[in-house]
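Researcher: Re-running this chain for the archive, since the previous output was lost when a drive failed. Same request as before.
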Amino acid sequence: MQTLAFRYDPEVDLELPTEERLFAERPEAQDGAVWARLERLAGLIPERIRAMEAEYEAAYARVLESEGEAFFEAMDRVNALSRKIAELNVWYWRIAGRHIPPYYG
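Model: Regenerated structure tokens:
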């Protein structure tokens, strides 16, 4: 079985799997070291999402206060954060097999 590769994603400050092939099979069929790495990743994701949600809220506040080009730049940041939060949620679901409970803080 080919080993799953990881890549560092500076936008979320985590190493994420480079492919989704792993999730076509059940975790029990995977290499133990790879699965341990995935479990560590799953443990980090909820905290990272909470931090990104706080950044999202601050960025959205800037959107509400902005006009013209600044508005569009702030919206680009909000959209990028939203995309990364969603991506991390999907990775958590693929690894842990469950959704992250909503955090409203």
